[in-house]
């Protein structure tokens, strides 16, 4: 259950229950998700990094540490904290692409970010699309890229698609041929759910394997804990059937449970 508390950004339980071992790929993905969703968890991890704690040393690689550092920065952007980039982006610090989920930074924050860190222009434009800031978008969007076009197709406001189609037509660009960087994008649900569960809940290890890590959306990682959350409301009788019979478990017609 340790990884679940990282996923939920619960500092107290995660810090108390985490074992002195190398941080695996599932736990790292859960930590990243927890930081994206919880400012205090992000601040706690920043303190861990500052002190080079044993937990940070257990990350095993500089790449894993960089993944955590960049999502801490993303959370700071989303809560409209300019301090980190008010003099430009810190040297050597990685930049996050996902800066619009689960919070929407104010348009002023994105405007300041562009002024201080112009090399983040594309993800700032994408954030403008997802946050529905057409005025700032128009000020910044002078080029058409696959990632920007893909974002516009997901947006609720058709303004962005219309504008990009006009820009593309004026430059002779075939929008359908534009390349999209899949590792930067949300190709899967940010909060996936399921209605059919496996029954192997014997221990934490098997559950960690069930979590799985995909190529996205949280800057290259995705964690699915829908199995655990589905079981939160399971009846004691159903849990006993799972323990006895194994197999697949789903919800029958009318909300009744059944074991396959």
Question: How would you explain this protein's 3D organization?
Answer:
The protein contains 14 helices and three strands. The longest helix has 17 residues, at 62-78. The chain folds into two domains: 2-184, no CATH class; 196-259, no CATH class. A three-stranded antiparallel β-sheet has the order 1-2-3, with helices on one face. It is mainly alpha-helical and 260 residues long.
Essential attributes:
single chain; 260 residues; mainly alpha; 2 domains; three-stranded antiparallel beta sheet; 14 helices; 3 strands; 52% helix; 4% strand; globular
What's the rounded overall pLDDT mean?
A: 81
**Helix segment tally:** 14
Tell how many strands the DSSP assignment holds.
3
The helical percent reads 40-55%
Please tell me the total number of domains. Answer: 2
| Distance between the ends | 26 Å
Query: Strand-residue fraction?
Result: under 5%
Read across the widest sheet, the strand sequence of neighbours is: 1-2-3
- Compute the gyration radius: what is it? 21 Å
Following the backbone from N to C, one meets helices and strands in this order, namely HHHHHHHHHHHEHHHEE
Low-confidence stretches: 199-215, 251-260
Based on Cα principal axes, name the global outline.
Answer: globular
**Content-based structural category:** mainly alpha
Give the biggest sheet.
Answer: 3 strands, antiparallel
